[in-house]
Write a structure and sequence with these properties.
Order of helices and strands: HHHHEEHHHHH
Number of strands: 2
Largest sheet: 2 strands, antiparallel
Amino acid sequence: MSAGHPLYRDRGGRLHRVPVEVKIVAAFGVVLAIVATPRDVVWPYAVCAVALLSVWFAADIPLRWIAPRMLIELPFVVLAVLLPFAEGGSRTDVLGFSLSTHGLWAAWGIVAKGTLGVAVSLTLAATTHPRELPLGLGRLHVPAFVTTIVLLMIRYVDLLAAEADRMRTARLARGDSPRALHQVGATARGVGGLFLRSYERGERVHLAMASRGFTGSIPAMDGIAGVDPPASRRDWVLGSIPVLLAVCIAVAAWCVR
């Protein structure tokens, strides 16, 4: 996998050099703290957003790179927009609409927590090369089958995307119009064909790996030339700072709400 992966920005900054296992634990801890923050208090989310902007500035991650990739949360935003109209309880008037107060806070919680969670995930992806993830998961003693699934997913997701693009190009060359309603059946058959090709490719890959002695788990990579050493105590102490800050913000929000 090349350094030009769409979710990785090879800038060589300080955050990029942090051991991958520290970044995984820090991102997971920060997201948990954000989820645990009460939704009916606004200032904690603003503080977390400012902290993320500072991290992006330090890691050379521009907003124009982050913003298009945040669109992945659009389905949740649509759900959040509908909640104030569907929820019951006390009502309040907003721009001439009678909306549920409980629904408004629920919508705010989904949007705020979802946006910050996606932003933290994108920060981890932008500063961590995909090939480093299995190494970090192994050092964190994640079950071997999970690490294997992650490694194979990272390796073959680009191949499947390329296969889907080739199938789309072939359909367009034969006069297909994906936006036409009468082509829904052809689109569904194309998705099924892609699934069958993916399944067959997976079987061939498994047979090839088994014939080369694969036992079902990725071997440890520590000590191999070119592999970064495990995190030191200093790395863990520095990596725990953002988690502690996020936890303190969540606790303070619960205390003053």
